Amino acid sequence: MLSSVIALNRFGLGARPGDQPPADPKQWLLRQFDRYEPRPQALAQVPSRTVVASQLADYIEEQRMAGQARRRQPASMTAAAMPQQADAKEVDPVKRYLRQNIRQNYLVMSSARLDSALASDSPFVERLVHFWANHFAVSVDKLPVIGLAGLLEFEAIRPHVLGKFSDMLLAVEQHPAMLVYLDQAQSIGPNSRGGQFAAMRGGKQRGLNENLAREIMELHTLGVRTGYSQADVTEFARALTGWTVGGIGRGPGARMLGNAPAGDFQFADLLHEPGDRTIMGKRYRQDGEAQARAVLMDLAASPATARHLATKLARHFAGDEPPPALVERLSRAYLASGGDLPSVCRALIESSEPWAPQPLKFKSPWDWSVSALRAIDATSIPAQAQAGLLKQLGQPTWQPGSPAGWDDIAASWAAPEALVLRVEAAQRIADSVGSSVDARALAEKLYPGSLSDATRTAIARAESPAEGLALLLVSPEFVRR
Amino acid sequence: MLSRRTFVAAGSAAASLAALGFPSMSFAKAATNRRFVFIIQRGAADGLHIVAPTGDPAYAGLRGDFAQDLAQGAKLGSFFTLHPALAETAKLYAAKQALFVHAVASPYRDRSHFDGQNVLETGGSGAYRLRDGWMNRLLGLLPADEAKALALSTTVPMALRGSHEVSSYAQSQMASPTDDLMARVSALYSTDQQLHGLWSAAIDTRTMAGDSMQGGGQNGAAIGALAAKMLGGDGARIAMIETNGWDTHSGQRARLNAQLRNLDQLVASLRAGLGPEWSNTLVVIATEFGRTAKPNGTGGTDHGQASAAMLLGGAVSGGRVVADWPGLSSAALYEGRDLKPTTDLDALIAAALAQHYGLDPARAMATLFPETRGTAFAQSLITA
């Protein structure tokens, strides 16, 4: 591949028919830093956080009331009546309406994400948005996250993708999607006033949840096996108590937590474990919210974090086995700049490893879909259709199923059935375009000076223009970058 | 030391079969009928909630309201109780086709899902030490007609990755590509080593599945039926099924109930779909690690150590719970919080497969789990 093709495909999201191969590929990438729009036109229709949060609050309130009604029944009835109630729950019209609303938010947002990727003139930065959203993954298989996942990307990732990592980190960890997804919103310091009060009342749900603390250390910052202990995780979980979401709970006591608007980050002193914390040998004497914030800032500045992030970036741009020299260079750029992400990107662009002429990555389903749709110059895909496509290909948006996000290696995506699904999808995409595209010309345009004879011949011999286009979309050139 | 622990094992189907005069060799020779299914529970399933040690004196106090779920569960001897959502599995236990192994763990002793699953699937002694999976290495020990493995997912999970060819299959709701396009793709990929290999495997599997596969495969029953179909006739002999959603940090009682009901349906439909082949089938269900012995503050549990594993199938010498029970007193817990591992999952799996396929146990252990120096698992696990 020529370096102009590498810039468009490996760094970018795939060429569109009208894109001119950049004469100076490195400059083309760097200039995107000035062009990038944190909130492009495609996101204009996305519902606000207040709307999403209040729908969620209604839903949770509805569930709480139903739960109370169940508990009021005598215990002997409850077990026997369970199956019928489970059925009744499904047909409850209020609940169904709210559920649909929440699902609708997800469709609007996942559509907006794809449309933004299709329309983008700064596809390298757009790719970085997807990279960081996957680094800080939440998964919509947890119901309250369905409507919030998109907002995490739009509100916490997009504004900081060309800023400091520590700012992105703080924005993510204080975002309602993350606080809810990793159970932080319900974590209570056992010795906090709230914890003590609940203990006195014999309430059932009281206490610490270490999920967010662990995943911040393991996945978001330091990386697994980098020297922190179980005790550090637990201490960090204690420091994080009180970090919750405003206005989502409406039960008695909810208003005692604070008065942040629905869906906004809320520090609830009532739930915060009092006292100093010791994490990785350092003592944190801060009060309240500042305590966990100070821990986060130290984590962001750690050399282990620099190495962890550098390794993932190197894997994304230079191959499944990240070249050690590149990891070292990116890691140094991170530490020297105080975690300034554009500085790290510049070090990436200036390195030789990501410019190797042979393909270095097997495209993920998301990568492949975006590049295929850009190749046919699609600008907007119906919400249901895009969700269906990505689900079938095995990568439904914001649903990696775990906080580790989607894998970024070929072994996770290059499988027999996955390939057949791509061929099926390619045929559907090609059929939707019909004979309006000459795949022979398009192939030369997308891969100038870089098309193999086998692909050129296969396209030329296809029985129809649509079949030729389908073959281009599944060609060895196109399924890799 | 031994006197402080309780060894729990009730009944032995192997012993009773031997008493009836069935020579144990006769079935082992007819090795071509053997089926093996590995069901992975991703996310760390809480063994204490699934095969609950209700007879342990510390159990009720430790588990709080979780214990209520077990009131309706099937009794497994005097010490353990099976979660009531596993109703079909309880029937297998009654028919001596289900064996539960408790306080079992892989060699992994930390608490990261992703590292833990890597150890469980590669069979190494630590994360990312081995590059292939133990199920793939198993294929090298079997005759060619038995070494046909399938992942019931669009991609191949780590346990099945390696040098031996493996296929993958998931139901597609998309329109099938035309035969012509398929043929042209075959030609286009013929000179690309990676794509050619993947494509050939896919074509073979699709030919096998035929065209009758329609509709969604989201729930356990559908996945079980699909697996049974793919394992029937001349299809695959070995399959891996992935289940997710076991990471119950909150609301565990309701979530686990739904998870287990789904798993139970999966097993039931696999059994029904396999028909007579069920008698030659071994199903192993295992997870990367267990969860904290004590519930956390949000009605769930956090990452722990030992859990429970299940051996199901007509080939299993079941109706028992095998456990070198470590106890639940705070002194007995691992790091004061988790069920202490006393049985090696690696050794269990190696022994079960060696017996199932009539392999030399030492060779099976050395191939599947080359880094583990666990104690050999001496018990009889397979009927014949």
Order of helices and strands of chain B: EHHEHEHEEHEHHEEHHHEHEEEEHH
Count of alpha and pi helical runs of chain B: 13
Q: Can you count the beta strands of chain A? A: 4
Poorly predicted parts of chain A: 75-89
Shape verdict of chain A: globular
Strand content of chain B: 15-25%
* Largest protein interface, residues of each chain: A-B, 58 and 59 residues
Named at the architecture level, the CATH assignment of chain B is: 3-Layer(aba) Sandwich
Structural class of chain A: mainly alpha
Shape category of chain B: globular
Overview features:
A: mainly alpha; two-stranded antiparallel sheet; 59% helix; B: 384 residues; Alkaline Phosphatase, subunit A; three-stranded antiparallel sheet; 13 strands; globular; disordered N terminus
Task: Summarize the helices and strands and which ones pair or pack.
The complex is a heterodimer of chains A (481) and B (384).
Chain A: H1 3-11, H2 25-35, H3 49-72, H4 75-91, H5 93-119, H6 123-135, H7 143-146, H8 149-157, H9 165-173, H10 176-181, H11 193-201, H12 211-220, H13 230-240, E1 243-245, E2 265-267, E3 277-279, E4 282-284, H14 289-300, H15 303-318, H16 324-336, H17 341-350, H18 365-375, H19 383-392, H20 410-413, H21 416-433, H22 439-446, H23 453-460, H24 465-474, H25 476-479
Antiparallel strand pairs in A: 1-2, 3-4
Helix pairs in contact in A: 1-2, 2-17, 3-5, 5-18, 5-19, 8-9, 9-14, 12-13, 15-16, 16-17, 21-24, 23-24
Chain B: E1 6-8, H1 13-19, H2 25-29, E2 35-41, H3 47-50, E3 51-52, H4 59-63, E4 74-76, E5 80-82, H5 87-94, E6 98-105, H6 113-122, H7 134-139, E7 149-151, E8 166-168, H8 179-189, H9 193-209, H10 220-231, E9 238-243, H11 252-274, E10 281-287, E11 307-312, E12 320-325, E13 343-344, H12 345-357, H13 361-368
